[in-house]
């Protein structure tokens, strides 16, 4: 492996994924995180925008924290394909020498990231959920150099049963793919402008260029509960199909989706495709409301990986409280509508400011 | 047509994750299986063999006991099996692993290489594309359908909200999704033959055009700073509010604190 001169590598770079000329949410999340890392390293955040006729997207990247945008714009880059995109990103890395490169752990990034990291001969840590700047080794070991200002990348493995923190101390850039929905975007700065630098390394089709024969977009009018960021899930305690209305109102205010437990499907209140649990779907939203759900192990198995779990149940001893981050003991028929009203008020207040 | 399928033996995490009393993972109690995405890749290769009469070779890198996964592949219908095993290869990250496998593949003729998208122990999805990069091949990741027409493959490449129908000239590398198919069972005759079959075993010396500095733990650019079995999530806060409004206000306050609203 080529050991490069680490001192030459500066700056935090983010692959600004766009699809159909729309910036993906993950790109903005990475800019938010990148800005934080860059502040610690006293450097800048650069977005690498790759596509065809995508210059117009640069302002949005600036509003979300990019100090600089490197634009690689070429007809070969109109639709994602591994090779021209890998050539674009690898060429940017070779020319500009960033110390950190962040890529979204999407179906695109998990293909682009490994290809580029192998090409520029550095390490890549997959599906990270925490990124920090720190020392490697974490604790100084006599006889071994402790390096400072390293990117420490934490990721789950083994189906989420183990976690590891990984560093890339001897090679640059330090590369990570980052799980979507984990990092925070910054509040956009209206009117912010970034320095745009255009760079085209030249694209000559070779054996690695595949041909796209057809693009088939999924057509679906119902949201798959596995894709939902917020799930408002009801159980037997909701009492009736009609009473799910109060859950739907709460979901609407949060931009969430309603799901349910097995008992609800067995009672015919909701269809099977909304069922969470071992015999239903495994979900991992950012927020999971368990309302009137007792929390049988089969249900918990399908939702315990949710980032934040809120439980509302009248039974203080319900096992759902054992996995909930926030639990409220009480009557869901009164608490849920009150919560909907207060969230509406809080949103209105925020919008007014 | 010659197809090589790269497989990995992994501990079974599905339906059988076992924990020690202290909440850590009990690896010893878990079964070793052929990684599911790899098995789907093998099935895709065997289907092409049924259709076109391809020769299917399975290759794995691992400890000597990984030969069990190769024998299972032979019993399903693979023709040859290669085990890459050597003490100096241990502790490899995805860079060192892909370098090793590419070094082994340089000894073999192939039209098509199939790997699983990702293994259920590491979940990285990196080794397939990195092998392609080392060998200078086109890569098509996340395949949900594979067809062969003449010297070309036609693959449905899955994305988050769509799929692309992609055509590539062989030789190329494809990473397979479990959704691709339902792998066949081993046949009794296949099991009998697989038990007796010879497995080719290669060590460090058999890897072609590979530098020692890219192998094993030492050749891995990523280093583990800290690893732990995840502590199972415990109970958080629970309140019994004086009124429904108080209960709701508690949640709203928590959401504000966490910048959710």
Spans of chain A of at least 5 consecutive residues whose pLDDT stays below 50 are none
- CATH-level-2 architecture of chain B: 3-Layer(aba) Sandwich
Question: What is the assembly state of the chains in this entry?
Answer: heterodimer
Instruction: Please name the CATH architecture of the largest domain in chain A.
Output: 3-Layer(aba) Sandwich
Strand order of the largest sheet of chain B: 9-8-7-10-6-1-4-5-11
Question: In words, what does this structure look like?
Answer:
The complex is a heterodimer of chains A (353) and B (261). Chain A has 353 residues and is an alpha/beta fold. Chain A folds into 2 domains: 6-198, HUPs (Rossmann fold, 3-Layer(aba) Sandwich), CATH 3.40.50.620; 230-352, 3-Layer(aba) Sandwich (Rossmann fold). Helix content of chain A is 25%, strand content 27%. Chain A is built from 8 helices and 18 strands. Chain A has helices at 25-41, 58-63, 82-96, 109-119, 245-254, 262-266, 297-300, 332-352, and strands spanning 12-15, 18-19, 22-23, 45-51, 68-73, 100-104, 124-128, 130-136, 147-157, 162-167, 174-178, 195-198, 211-217, 230-234, 257-260, 287-291, 308-313, 326-329. In chain A, helix 3 (82-96) packs across helix 4 (109-119). Chain B has 261 residues and is an alpha/beta fold. Chain B has 6 helices and 13 strands. In chain B, strand 7 (139-149) and strand 8 (152-158) form a beta hairpin. In chain B, helix 2 (67-76) packs across helix 5 (188-196). The mean pLDDT of chain B is 91. At the A-B interface, helix 3, helix 4, strand 7, strand 9 and strand 10 of A face helix 3, helix 4, strand 7, strand 9 and strand 12 of B.
């Amino acid at each position: 492996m080529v050991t490069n001169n680490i001192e030459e590598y500066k700056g935090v770079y983010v692959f600004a994924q766009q699809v159909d000329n729309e910036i993906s949410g993950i790109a903005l999340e990475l800019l938010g995180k990148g800005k934080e890392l860059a502040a610690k390293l006293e450097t800048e955040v650069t977005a690498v925008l790759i596509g065809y006729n995508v210059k117009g997207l640069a302002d949005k990247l600036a509003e979300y924290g990019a100090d600089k945008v490197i634009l690689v714009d070429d007809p070969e880059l109109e639709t994602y394909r591994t090779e021209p995109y890998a050539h674009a990103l690898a060429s940017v890395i070779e020319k500009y020498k960033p110390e950190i490169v962040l890529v979204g752990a999407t179906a695109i990034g998990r293909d682009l990231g490994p290809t580029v990291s192998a090409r520029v001969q550095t390490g890549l840590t997959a599906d990270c959920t925490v990124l920090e700047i720190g020392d490697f080794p974490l604790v100084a070991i006599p006889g071994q150099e402790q390096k400072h200002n390293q990117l420490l990348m934490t990721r789950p493995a083994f189906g989420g049963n183990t976690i590891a923190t990984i560093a890339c101390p001897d090679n640059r850039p330090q590369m990570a793919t980052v799980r979507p929905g984990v990092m925070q975007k910054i509040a956009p700065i209206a009117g912010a402008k970034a320095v745009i630098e255009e760079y085209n390394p030249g694209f000559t089709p070779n054996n690695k260029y595949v041909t796209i024969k057809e693009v088939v977009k999924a057509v679906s009018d119902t949201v798959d509960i596995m894709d939902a960021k917020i799930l408002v899930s009801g159980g037997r305690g909701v009492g009736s199909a009609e009473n799910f209305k109060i859950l739907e109102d709460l979901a609407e205010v949060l931009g969430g989706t309603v799901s349910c437990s097995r008992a609800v499907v067995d009672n015919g209140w909701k269809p099977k495709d909304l069922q969470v649990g071992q015999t239903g779907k495994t979900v991992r939203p950012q927020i999971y409301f368990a309302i009137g759900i007792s929390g049988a192990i089969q249900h918990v198995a399908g939702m315990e990986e949710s980032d934040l779990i809120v439980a509302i149940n009248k039974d203080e001893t319900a096992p759902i409280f054992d996995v909930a981050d926030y639990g409220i003991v009480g009557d869901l028929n009164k608490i849920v509508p009150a919560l909907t009203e207060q969230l509406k008020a809080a949103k209105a207040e925020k919008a007014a400011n | 047509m010659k197809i090589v399928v790269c497989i990995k033996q992994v501990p079974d995490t599905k339906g059988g994750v076992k924990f020690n009393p202290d909440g850590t993972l009990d690896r010893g109690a878990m079964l070793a299986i052929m990684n599911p995405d790899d098995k789907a890749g093998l099935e895709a290769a065997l289907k092409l063999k049924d259709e076109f009469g391809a020769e299917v070779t399975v290759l794995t890198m691992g400890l000597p006991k990984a030969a069990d996964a190769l024998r299972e592949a032979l019993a399903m219908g693979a023709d040859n099996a290669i085990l890459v095993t050597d003490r100096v290869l241990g502790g490899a990250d995805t860079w060192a692993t892909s370098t090793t496998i590419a070094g082994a593949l340089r000894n073999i003729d192939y039209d098509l290489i199939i790997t699983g998208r990702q293994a259920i122990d590491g979940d990285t999805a990196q080794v397939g594309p990195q092998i392609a990069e080392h060998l200078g091949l086109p890569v098509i990741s996340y395949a949900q359908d594979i067809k062969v027409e003449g010297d070309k493959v036609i693959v449905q490449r899955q994305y988050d909200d769509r799929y692309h129908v992609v055509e590539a000239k062989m030789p190329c590398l494809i990473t397979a999704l479990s959704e691709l198919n339902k792998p066949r069972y081993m046949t009794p005759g296949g099991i009998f033959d697989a038990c007796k079959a010879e497995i080719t075993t290669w060590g460090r010396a058999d890897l072609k055009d590979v530098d020692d500095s890219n192998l094993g733990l030492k050749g891995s650019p990523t280093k583990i700073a800290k690893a732990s079995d995840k502590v199972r999530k415990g109970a958080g806060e629970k309140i019994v509010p004086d009124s429904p409004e108080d209960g709701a206000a508690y949640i709203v306050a928590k959401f504000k604190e966490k910048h959710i609203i």
